[in-house]
Specification:
four-stranded antiparallel sheet; about 55% strand; about 240 residues; Neuraminidase; mainly beta
Length: about 240
């Protein structure tokens, strides 16, 4: 395991997404903007005027989707920079990720729901009954993993069974990701740790000692990238 800092000087970073050219987009919660971290390590503001950006993801066409935690909306930013409101009326939306069918999953935190948004913005409740959900990720077998800021990680199996892991994960953050290899990783915001979680409800510690890790994404080289709220940085974890 190898940990390397690749960016610093961010302001309460949360969600992240990797562009096709390798540039890393970071939701800078405290600065109300999305920053771009280039492969050289240089950082610049890419998109501003997004109030409390939290979740961040990119679709196959290069469109950026950013959840505004403060305004209860999701913005869609096209490759040419044109920004529109993709969805309204949410309740403190946090983590975002795409399903294989193109649906956008939204952790609708204050409503204790995971929503599925169609390409035209229409929404439906995929599942509910969570405890302040802030992120979601789907494994290859269809199991949905939901990080609850105040209630552990909930494993929702295709047959309807649910299991919630609350130990040793103290306070899961928005950072939860399904890698290309089908593994599930989640940040423990309070514990300063990144864990791997299996469908059998087992947790394996990957790295510890981080300062309030909030965001997590898989990089181009299949390493994990973790955004730390506490010191405004991004670290690369080589597995």
């Amino acid at each position: 395991m190898f940990l390397k800092k690749i960016a610093s000087g961010l302001d309460a970073p949360v969600g992240m997404a990797v562009r096709a050219d390798g540039g890393l987009l970071v939701a800078n919660w405290g600065a109300d903007c999305i920053s771009l971290v280039r492969e050289t390590g240089d950082t610049e503001r890419a998109f501003c005027n997004i109030s409390g950006p939290s979740g961040l993801t990119i679709d196959a066409s290069g469109n950026i989707f950013a959840a505004s935690y403060s305004d209860d909306i999701i913005k869609r930013i096209e490759p040419d920079g044109t920004a529109t409101i993709f969805a309204r009326g949410l309740r403190t939306p946090a983590g975002l990720c795409f399903e294989k069918d193109g649906a956008l999953l939204v952790a609708n935190r204050a409503a204790n729901q995971i929503l599925a948004l169609a390409p035209d913005g229409r929404s439906r409740i995929l599942c509910d009954g969570f405890q302040t959900p802030v992120g979601a990720a789907r494994s290859p077998d269809g199991t949905l993993f939901v990080s609850n800021f105040s209630g552990g990680v909930t494993i929702c199996r295709p047959d309807g069974r649910r299991t919630t892991i609350s130990d040793p994960i103290r306070q899961p953050g928005p950072g939860i990701v399904a890698t290309t290899a089908g593994r599930i990783f989640v940040v423990d915001f309070a514990g300063g740790t990144v864990f791997e979680v299996t469908a059998d409800a087992e947790c394996v510690e990957i790295v510890s000692g981080l300062k309030s890790p909030a965001g997590l994404v898989e990089g181009r080289n299949r390493a994990l990238l973790v955004a730390t709220w506490g010191d405004g940085a991004v670290y690369e974890i080589s597995l």
